[in-house]
């Protein structure tokens, strides 16, 4: 009731409000929901190692002093063939595009730990960016902590940006030591002449002068070997890219900034958050300052239970589970009592979901209940039933 009231009422406005709507797009399982949760400071979006955990567009709200960030957590960009294979709703094809239409800034997330996909943006992502070239875009390289060879990041930056960032041509001046084990924080991408109107230089884009100061006599030979820079040269401004242009493109040459982080552990997420807050423009807030997400408590509950089902069931099985909430009420001591029925298409699926001796369904209920307590900040008693679709 409190959540419904906050969403229904007019937002409380500070004296000089600022706002920014951010669309996070990328391939399935790139870490979009994990990043959204880290920016929000609490887990409100489902996260799983399986693709297509996020099934619909949801908004998260970050309110900091006079600034409000609206985070549009969207399903991974996919095509109709893959959508049919995973029994995905039509909304999953439509929602990322709808989010782009209303965004002031777009974050393109790339999983650098996936060596099969990291060297190029997907066709769906490139198509989405080319349809909205007027919306500023930022490249976010995620899961950098999983890369043992940090010099690979330089190659990825060049490929994913087509060698151009913020209208400047990038050129590798020196290569990383291939045996370097330096962390992502020591990786410096420098530009000779950043634009004067930039209000904030992100951690991962530092000026050449800083790089030169860092290479003093105190530097060890290892740190000198692992130092590299990308020097900017004049380049033509952004243009529209049609289907023919995209055929030969691996990256997007219109990114304004590049960030490198590990969303799961929160590394460098604060740097990105500060950058986003500084990009906000004067304008009214969309939500009350007490709102954390546009989702209803029931939707959050459904998402968290589905997350656990995805974790513990094999292959395509979880995508056929239908969730039906049969009870949602407050108990005598103020605890939240939830009973949900999980409907599966086959008896074999039911046996897998229950598990031997009921171990699987018990584990799902226990872990989902704990997550719900952390979200709702109250005691939660969750009961799950499983039945075959009649």
UniProtKB/TrEMBL annotation:
Topology with respect to the bilayer: Peripheral membrane protein
CC annotations in GO: mitochondrial inner membrane; mitochondrial matrix
Region (G4): 142-145
GO molecular function ontology, one term from the record: ribosomal small subunit binding
Region described as G3: spans on this chain: 73-76
GO annotation, biological process: ribosomal small subunit assembly
Main location: mitochondrion
Biased segments, Polar residues type: 182-191
Region (Disordered) residue spans: 182-246
Bias kind Low complexity: ranges: 209-220
InterPro entries, per the entry: G_ERA_dom, GTP-bd, GTPase_Era-like, KH_dom-like_a/b, KH_dom_type_2, P-loop_NTPase, Small_GTP-bd
Region (G5): 261-263
Region feature (G1): 26-33
Positions of the Era-type G domain: 18-283
Family statement: Belongs to the TRAFAC class TrmE-Era-EngA-EngB-Septin-like GTPase superfamily. Era GTPase family.
Purpose: Probable GTPase that plays a role in the mitochondrial ribosomal small subunit assembly. Specifically binds the 12S mitochondrial rRNA (12S mt-rRNA) to a 33 nucleotide section delineating the 3' terminal stem-loop region. May act as a chaperone that protects the 12S mt-rRNA on the 28S mitoribosomal subunit during ribosomal small subunit assembly.
Stated name of the protein: GTPase Era, mitochondrial
Organism: Anhinga anhinga
């Amino acid at each position: 009731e409190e959540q419904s009231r906050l969403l229904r009422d007019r937002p409380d406005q500070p004296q000089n409000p600022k706002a920014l709507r951010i669309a996070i797009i990328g391939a399935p399982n790139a870490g979009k929901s994990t990043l959204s949760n880290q920016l929000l400071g609490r887990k409100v979006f489902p996260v799983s190692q399986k693709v297509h955990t996020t099934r619909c567009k949801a908004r998260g709200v970050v309110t900091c002093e006079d600034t409000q960030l609206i985070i549009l957590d969207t399903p991974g960009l996919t095509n109709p063939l893959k959508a049919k294979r995973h029994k995905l709703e039509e909304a999953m094809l439509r929602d990322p595009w709808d989010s782009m239409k209303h965004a002031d800034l777009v974050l393109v997330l790339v999983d650098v730990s996936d060596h099969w996909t990291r060297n190029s943006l997907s066709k769906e992502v490139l198509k989405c960016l080319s349809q909205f070239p007027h919306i500023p875009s930022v490249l976010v390289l995620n899961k950098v902590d999983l890369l043992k060879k940090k010099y690979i990041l330089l190659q990825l930056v060049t490929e994913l940006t087509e060698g151009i960032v913020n209208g400047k041509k990038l050129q590798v001046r020196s290569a990383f030591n291939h045996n370097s084990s330096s962390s992502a924080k020591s990786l410096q991408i420098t530009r000779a002449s950043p634009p004067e109107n930039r209000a904030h230089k992100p951690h991962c884009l530092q000026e050449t002068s800083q790089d030169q100061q860092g290479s003093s006599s105190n530097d060890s030979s290892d740190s000198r070997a692992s130092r590299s820079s990308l020097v900017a040269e004049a380049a033509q401004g952004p243009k529209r890219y049609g289907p023919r242009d995209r055929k030969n493109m691996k990256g997007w040459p219109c990114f304004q900034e590049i960030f490198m982080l590990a969303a799961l552990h929160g590394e460098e997420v604060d740097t990105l958050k500060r950058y986003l807050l500084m990009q906000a423009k004067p304008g009214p807030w969309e939500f009350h300052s007490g709102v954390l997400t546009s989702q209803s408590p029931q939707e959050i509950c459904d998402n968290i239970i589905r997350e656990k089902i995805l974790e513990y069931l094999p292959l395509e099985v979880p995508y056929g589970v239908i969730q039906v909430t049969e009870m949602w009420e407050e108990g005598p001591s103020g605890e939240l009592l939830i009973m949900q029925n999980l409907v599966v298409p086959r008896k074999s699926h039911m046996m897998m979901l229950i598990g031997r001796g009921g171990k699987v369904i018990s584990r799902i209920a226990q872990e989902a209940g704990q997550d719900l307590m952390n979200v709702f900040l109250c005691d939660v008693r969750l009961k799950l039933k499983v039945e075959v679709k009649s």
